[in-house]
Specification:
It is a single chain. The chain is mostly helical and 168 residues long. It is built from seven helices and two strands, in the order ααααααββα. α1 runs parallel beside α7. The radius of gyration is 17 Å and the shape is elongated.
């Protein structure tokens, strides 16, 4: 098993937990858009933003930061709405759209990872445009593996707060 295989297994596991949460939301009594758009406080990100942030980040890395494949980016038109530092809109995208962007972003990431070999883990670097920091492929894979779990956790606690909120 290669290092890339291990990372892909981690990414698959993390994604399975995100899909399980989305499946749970789909089964709830309320319309899914009201659940996905619920915020734990003013200015806070809703569940839909958290998950879309994961999805567009993977597409950005798969088509722009780790590769020169901008024409393969299917959702570049919404990156500014969900990338780090963006302000969440009041409404969440529909559940089916969230799933599509998750799947497309993952495909872009996997296609790009397949273009690397283990010798690239420390040799390949890129410069983060906002932070102006050089980052190796190895560190990038660690960040990406952490990133989805982090935002899934934020989405999950937001869902739990939604389920246990005081009703007016």
């Amino acid at each position: 098993m290669t290092v890339f295989d291990s990372y892909k297994e981690m990414l698959d596991f993390s994604r399975s937990r995100v899909h399980a949460m989305l499946d749970d939301i789909e089964q709830m009594d309320k319309p899914t858009d009201s659940i996905l758009s619920w915020r734990p406080g003013d200015g806070r990100a809703h569940i839909g933003w958290q998950i879309m942030h994961v999805a567009v980040t993977e597409e950005m890395f798969g088509t722009q930061r780790l590769a020169d494949r901008a024409t393969d980016a299917l959702h570049a038109n919404i990156w500014d709405d969900f990338k780090g530092g963006s302000t969440p809109a009041d409404e969440s995208p529909e559940l089916d759209h969230i799933r599509d962007v998750l799947n497309d972003g993952r495909q872009a990431m996997l296609q790009t990872l397949d273009s690397f070999s283990e010798s690239d883990l420390d040799a390949f670097t890129w410069t983060h445009p906002r932070l102006d920091v050089e980052i190796s492929l190895r560190r990038t894979l660690q960040i990406i593996a952490y990133h989805e779990s982090h935002h899934h956790g934020q989405a999950h606690i937001t869902l739990n707060l939604y389920k246990n909120r005081i009703q007016d």
